[in-house]
# Entry
Amino acid sequence: MFADIPGQARAKAYFAGALARGPGHAYLLAGPEGLGKRRFALELGTALVAPCGGCGDCADCERLARGVNPDLTVVEREGEFIRIEQIAALIADLSLKPFFATRRVWVVIEPERLNVEAANTFLKSLEEPPSHVHFILVSDEPERVLPTIISRCQVVEFQPVADDELIAHLVAREGLDAERAAVVARLSHGSVERALRLAGDDRGAQRRQRYLHLAAGIVLHDRDAERAFVDEVGNAEVAAAGAVETDIARRRDELERAVADDRERVWHARRLDALQRREQARVSRLAALDALDHLSSFVRDVWAVGLGAAGAVSNRDRLAELQHAAVARPDLYARLLVVVGHTRKDLSLNIDRRLALQAMFARFQEVWESA
# Structure
């Protein structure tokens, strides 16, 4: 259990003890995006439900991993919010005894996205659930979760993963050589999901080189490089969404083979439709954020070179380009980083990413013109 999730030693030890003593009825896994909290929650749910305790190899674990065991249910927003209809369906199921196990588990993703009516209704069930019911909430933004919901949960904090742990995981589990694993770890800034995206993307290394090449032109005021950067981000978004479509198609085929009941199959198919929409939106946004992180890493490195701190750069394989690009006052690069930071926040909202990137480069020009 949790063997394929790097880092999070405190969380792993905490739940090992909780499972040995007897688990609580509600947990909130809280921390920044990309730390593997969702996967951790599903493995914890499997450990709570499966008779084996979550070995990962038996038929029970395999059924849980495919999402076709009704004793483990994932609740996610459909659209912008988790709606009252979803919580009403959850509540209607609470009184049912487990189908195959001795416990039933609900994993609630993004409880901060519960609308007001849904949050208040869910709170009533969270306060006094049946003894066989357990809730695992997963939040990237716990400060937005209703405080009364948090007060009913045992909160477990997740932390960014240290570079050495990421490197070891990438070498042992993903088959990367140590040098590439070190580069990926540095670029991931403690995010497991980002490290796995960079490691597993067949074009990831080439895309990084492309972004950094364009970044070198961008910091030298090359407008063509800016336009090419925006186009490259669009291509990466399309590729990421296409990979999700391929994965969902595979899961649909598995569903057809695994589920005999027509009504159950239709129910799962609808969930896959909703999952595809959410995942395509999510991975497209992450592709854009990855591009921004490459750009900001180059600008930060140029800043470091300008300050005479070449030993602190992240993109050590691009040192010659960094030195060539470091022609402006260091404080200007600091201002560019502020602009990138604001754009990164903008991309977390439901806005046109292409327009957001174009606006970012317009602000870049304002920085240069103010020099």
